[in-house]
Amino acid sequence: MRKSLGLLDGAAIAASSTAATSSIGIGLGLTAGVVGLHLPAIMLLAFLPVLAIAGGYGRLNRVDPDSGSSYRWVGRTLNPWLGFLTGWVNTVGTVVFMAYTTTVTGSAIIQLLGQATVHSVAGLRLDPDSTLQCTLIGLAVLIAASLVAVRGLDLAARLQKYLLVFEYGVLLAFCGYGLFAGDQPFSLQWFNPFDIPSLSALAQGMVLAVFCYWGFESVFSVGEEVRDPRDASRAGMLALVVMMLLFLLAGTAFQRVLPLDELADNGAQGLAYFGSKLADQPLAALPLIALTLSAVASLQASVIPTARGLYAMGRDGVLGPVWTRLHPKHLTPAVGTLLITGIACVLALLSIAIPTVSDLISAAVNAIGIVVALYYALTAAASAVRFRHLLRTAPLEGLRAVVGPLLGAVALLLVGGYLAWTFYDSADHFELSADNGWFELLVPVLMIGTGLVAAAWARWRRRSAYFLRPVGEDADPAVPAPAA
Q1: Do 136 and 109 meet the contact criterion of CB atoms below 8 Å apart?
Q2: Which residues form a coiled coil (predicted)?
């Protein structure tokens, strides 16, 4: 694959995958319903372990840039089964994200049509909380975004940079104005994590907030296409810090403008409602336009690293050779990009069983948050094991590559494990409902369970050399795939 990306290109891909505007527009309302008026506190608290783990990602990428990123690093350093599971849950989690973001995109488009006084089409009333309508509209956007990704990363990165400039400009303008125009009294307690009402609220709030930061590592999945490996590390860190500042600004501004009940009740329409409280039309439509563009960019930024992760797994022979086929002209994993898009489309159609967009988002975000905590922790552990010698030879670098990632991993595992327990303990029967604890727990369990089954198939059926190579920091990073 071509080395066509620089620092700003990588930062654009990482930022688009993290999708701050979408997280602000949707995630803040959900999080406020859990932690109350402590959005700034929980966003800052979740940033710390993610930043520590990002240090491990950056160090691993500097010595071994690979499109498989955490899948290869964990498998090479810790255990190939854990490496495969890391790649699998990352892929499945991203596909689930793409499926529900498809619906979110359709919802934003319907909201935009409503603000343009288009409330029905061919006699059908448009409903921005209808999973069916939103999904069908969003599927067209997903397919178009994937076709651009097939065309090449340089085009996709340029498009995303333009979208980000518009999104961030709108966010800064509205949130900056909201800080001064809001009539809700400001309080420093908003930034105090010890004032969060309960341990379960803290755990679920942390998982939701970590989910908001999720995606910065997508720049490492295109590490083989970044001209300088150090640029990928810098891009990931830059995207993370910018996200944190935006989340703090938006969380504070939302709470200055909206009472808690209004913030929590508006959920998937949170950013549009926020804009309508601050401005009249047509200016009030700008935050919704920014949300729509962010959803589109995040769909594209999700399919790009996922296709490259599957390319790496196919190259190692743990998946079929179809995932390794490159476009003859653009040298992108075109077949894999289109296949993963098709799978996301099917899952999006299946999600229509959940009737409202708000319920769909809640179920998906909690499930993805738990598996993200798991594979972030595994990658952090790989960094700590691989660079443990730095504690003796370069203690300051050891803090960044060993101690920080380990502490971040422990924090996320504790939070994810506690949340999983609360889901199990909150119900006494299974029900296909977004607020049923056993259903919410079943989704991440299925993600992990299918990963173990797929790993067993790759090990004993495909006889992939990936499972036979030596483990350790001195292991040869180049693993030949078995003959097709």
Answers
A1: no
A2: none
